[in-house]
Amino acid sequence: MKNKISKLFTGSLLFLFFLSLSLLVINQARAQWTPTSGVSGGNIWCMTTNTAGNTLFAGTFGYGIFKSADNGVSWTPADSGIKGTYGTYILSLIPSGSNIIAGTVGGIFYSSNNGVSWNVADTILVKNKAVYALSTLGTTGNVIA
Fold first, then answer.
1. 72-82 pLDDT tens trace
2. Cα 144-48-46 angle, rounded to 5 deg
3. What is the CA radius of gyration of the chain?
4. What is the reported pLDDT for 81?
5. Cα 100 to the chain's mean position, in Å?
6. Using CA atoms, how far apart are residues 122 and 106, in angstroms rounded to an integer?
7. CB within 8 Å of 51: residues ≥ 6 apart
């Protein structure tokens, strides 16, 4: 009887040891996030890359567009010409050919120079209207808002 109790106690201790060890390993296996420079103080609503895939773009709600050419390590503002009454509220971003298209609370803008400057791309249908989603249609380069 004493031998059975000793085995049960030893088994229980081993179980608790391995359970504690596995919980410790699981806790240490989580990804560790660190802040980057440039994008702070606001919510990011959308992200995309340019067609070449070497520049990231982040659209924020109230702070404009930021871009990163080093995989998100550092960020710089990239919204020259897009600011206006509602232009800093970026709701959607997509690449289309050599352009980046931005849907904002105040319409659609495009950049043909990798975010250096932006131009109004509004048509009568979306002028001064919020554009929450954008998509490209196949390889034609047509954009659907």
1. 888 899 988 88
2. 80
3. 25
4. 83
5. 15
6. 9
7. 95, 97, 98
* Spatial contact of 57 and 67, defined as CB atoms under 8 Å apart: yes
Contact 77, 65 (CB under 8 A): yes
Supply 88's token pair. Answer: 């800093």
Q: Name the token pair of 140.
A: 């034609």
> What's the rounded Cα separation, in Å, for the pair 114 and 13?
61
Average pLDDT per 10 consecutive residues for the chain, totaling 145 residues: 58 65 58 66 85 89 90 88 76 90 89 91 72 80 78
Amino acid making up residue 98 = S
Q: Which two tokens stand for residue 114?
A: 């990798």
Separation of alpha carbons 133 and 61, rounded Å = 14
Amino acid at 134: L
pLDDT tens track for 40-57: 667 889 999 988 888 999
Q: Which residues contact 81 (CB under 8 A, 6 or more apart)?
A: 109, 117, 118, 119
Structure tokens at 123: 């048509």
Residues with Cβ within 8 Å of residue 104, at least 6 apart in sequence:
82, 86, 87, 88, 89, 90, 91, 130, 131
